[in-house]
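Figure 6 in text form: structure in, sequence out.
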């Protein structure tokens, strides 16, 4: 039986029903379960980690079949456990990393790895497009700039460097579409994922025809656009054999993980933004309707036809901390925390540009590399770590400044992600930004956001973005520390302006 679209229906909350979520991230896959109110079900989760392949020339890739296998294993493990426990399965909500893609042939088989958002090999193609196209006009239409993190430059790079793959490709898809094609024999792309490609005209909510023509790309080589958050049901015979508990369960198209993170953490009004530090880091403001255009140097992505986010992201967050721990042979996080907590703000004499994986907002440099300035024989590993973490905060502060014209009422942020494992880093960010940080009580904000939107579509929740925000402790900025960081940030910005050439 072919897959079929399942129309939304009003439904009363079920006391024992379970909504599954898949959260496919850069470093792991997680499958969780939530009840019909959006509360997590304890003891029902599965997770698998993976590591992108990175190379000195800027590659950052994941193997698509291997990631698919991991994803299906997590999904099957949780679905079968809930089915065995007699819990009705209400649906599956999905969120994945934005901006990644792979090429597939006519049979849906991968022709390339998954090129991740932090793959920088398309810098030359981005520079060429900047010469050929009206970048500001494109930014106004698509909410994205011409940069290696978006598909216009990356598709140009693929066509020029792999013409054989370009000719053979039937479609260019995100991982969510690849997953859906495997499960149902057909794939759609929702507005949320499409808005992160740089190919969507956000005014018409259609693929940008002029841009596609310039890229020698036809709409048929992209998945059909889905304007509603509508589910599919009816797994293919092969998929049903591996996932029998999900044979007829509604399965929703993938959403961008950043949009889900705002929704899941409760940062759903412009005055309460979201600060997320995971592998990368981002600041985002949520608009339930009437989102303005993206300010210069920031992006505008969609959750759906009505709801949008404006913000900025940097390519180095938790991945920078992991590199520091590995390279400097730092102690375990708990011991490092104790040492950092005793150190004075910016008292190390170092200035760091944390661009190990390139950079994005607010200036989208096409070439950016890491720098540690001010080293002496007395410099300690902990001081380098402190300076690097402070530098991440400085880059996020630059984004907050650009965000204020679009969200002038921004007065606090909800902090989520792996950042929360480091209370010292949370405190540092509050002091640098000069804003109160509400610590999110949601362990998996992106997963919860995907669950809430699926429950809204299923009729279990009236409006997912109007729920009370689940906020925890509030970290107020310290004015004296903020003043010291302001001086250090100016030194950082001076080095940044000297060494980093803006790309926009």
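Output sequence:
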């Amino acid at each position: 039986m072919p897959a079929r679209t399942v129309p939304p229906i009003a439904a009363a909350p079920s006391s024992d029903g379970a909504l599954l979520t898949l959260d496919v991230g850069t470093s792991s896959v997680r499958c969780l379960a939530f009840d019909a109110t959006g509360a997590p079900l304890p003891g029902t989760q599965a997770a698998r980690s993976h590591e992108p392949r990175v190379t000195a020339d800027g590659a950052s890739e994941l193997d698509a079949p291997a990631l698919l296998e991991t994803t299906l294993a997590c999904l099957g493990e949780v679905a079968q456990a809930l089915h065995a426990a007699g819990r009705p399965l209400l649906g599956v909500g999905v969120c994945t990393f934005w901006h990644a893609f792979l090429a597939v042939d006519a049979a849906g088989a991968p022709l390339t790895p998954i090129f991740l958002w932090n793959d920088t090999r398309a810098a030359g193609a981005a520079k060429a497009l900047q010469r050929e196209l009206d970048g500001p006009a494109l930014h106004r239409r698509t909410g994205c700039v011409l940069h290696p993190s978006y598909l216009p430059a990356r598709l140009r790079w693929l066509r020029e460097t792999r013409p054989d793959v370009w000719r053979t490709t039937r479609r260019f898809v995100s991982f969510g579409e690849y997953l859906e094609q495997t499960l149902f024999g057909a794939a759609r792309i929702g507005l949320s994922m499409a808005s992160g490609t740089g190919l969507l005209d956000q005014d018409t909510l259609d693929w940008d025809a002029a841009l596609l023509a310039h890229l020698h790309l036809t709409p048929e080589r992209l998945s059909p656009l889905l304007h509603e958050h509508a589910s599919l049901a009816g797994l293919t015979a092969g998929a049903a054999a591996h996932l029998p508990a999900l044979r007829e369960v509604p399965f929703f198209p993938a959403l961008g993980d950043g949009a889900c993170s705002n929704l899941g953490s409760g940062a759903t009004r412009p005055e309460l933004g979201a600060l997320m530090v995971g592998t990368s880091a981002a600041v985002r403001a949520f608009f339930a309707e009437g989102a303005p255009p993206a300010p210069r140097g920031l992006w505008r992505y969609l959750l759906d036809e009505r709801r949008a986010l404006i913000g900025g992201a940097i390519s180095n967050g938790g991945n920078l901390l992991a590199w520091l721990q590995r390279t400097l042979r730092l102690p375990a996080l708990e011991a490092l925390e104790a040492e950092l907590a005793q150190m004075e703000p910016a008292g190390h004499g170092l200035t760091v540009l944390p661009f190990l994986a390139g950079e994005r907002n607010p200036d989208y440099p096409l070439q950016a590399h890491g720098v540690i300035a001010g080293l002496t024989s007395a410099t300690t590993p902990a001081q380098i770590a402190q300076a690097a973490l402070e530098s991440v905060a400085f880059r996020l502060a630059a984004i907050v400044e650009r965000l204020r014209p679009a969200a002038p009422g921004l007065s606090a942020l909800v902090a989520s992600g792996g950042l929360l494992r480091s209370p010292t880093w949370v405190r540092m960010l509050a002091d640098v930004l000069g804003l109160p940080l509400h610590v999110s009580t949601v362990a998996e904000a992106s997963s919860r956001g995907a669950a809430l939107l699926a429950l809204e579509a299923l009729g279990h929740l009236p409006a997912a973005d109007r729920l009370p925000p689940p906020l925890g402790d509030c970290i107020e900025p310290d004015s004296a520390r903020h003043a010291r960081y302001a001086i250090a940030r100016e030194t950082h910005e001076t080095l940044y302006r000297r060494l980093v050439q803006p790309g926009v």
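Caption detail: Confidence is low (pLDDT under 50) at residues 9-13.
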